[in-house]
Amino acid sequence: MICNPCPGFETVMLAARKEDTPEVRRAQEAIPALAGNFQIPEGMRIETRTVPVDDRGTLREMKIYVPENAGPCPPIVMDLHGGGWRSGNPEGDTWRCIEMACKIPAIVASFDYRLADGKEVAFPTPLMDCIAAFRWLHGHGEELGGDPGRMGVIGHSAGANLAEGMSLYARDHKGLRPAMTALVCPPLSIDFTQTVAYHQWYDYKLGLPVPQLIAEPLYLGGYNGQAPSYYAFPLNCQDLAGLEPHMVVAAEYDTLRDDALRYADRLLKHGVQCELYCAARVGHCYNRFPHPYSRLLHDVIAAAFQREFRMAPYSEV
Fold this sequence. Notes:
alpha/beta; 8-stranded mixed sheet
């Protein structure tokens, strides 16, 4: 199918097509400039910390954004980038982190978890890195100038998968819980290739031609004859009750759209407070690109965090 992109996303959607044509290549070459079309706000403080993630002393970086309008003791939100578990870094989320930091306002910390290679690094290592980083943020929240009693998590694509793995793990192990978890275009199963969305928008690539080559051999580290843990692919979980409030974001032209819709529906059926937003005429993780429609999504996500953090806009009427 040929999509009808939201105005301003024509080049982005063309760059996502599977064909190798001069037009598609030109669109792909334009993507870095489109994604980098922003400026760091005046007065924003950005620093990088190193975070220990295991008992062997492994250190990973966390990029921390503190907006000028943070005020005293703001909430803290951890950001997890996408990239199919095998690529990506906090720098790719810079604009999204700036938006969240300024709009909530909050301290936003973008974490550089270890990337899967299917051999030395595979599930559950990236997930446990994220859990350790969230605990570190809680323990150092006051030092950073924030409120460790008000913390949230947002993930994009593979980062959303990791964020939900954190949510389920914390529930099951009575661990540190966020006030809210936001999932943007999450991959939550290994059977999303059976969904309507995948076949509707098959021409708009998402990772390798055979997506299972990312999920099973790479992220899971191979086949072992068992169903994947629901900490790795949360749609395998049969009981979602007891999770913290969620926000789930889907995109109409995303091959992962139906994973997000299915999961949000199950959260609601299991009694979990869940806000669902499905963006029209855009593709996977469209909010990477500075655009009024992306800013609208960030407004909605910021409002959801404000609600769960019990911030001023939601004072009693």
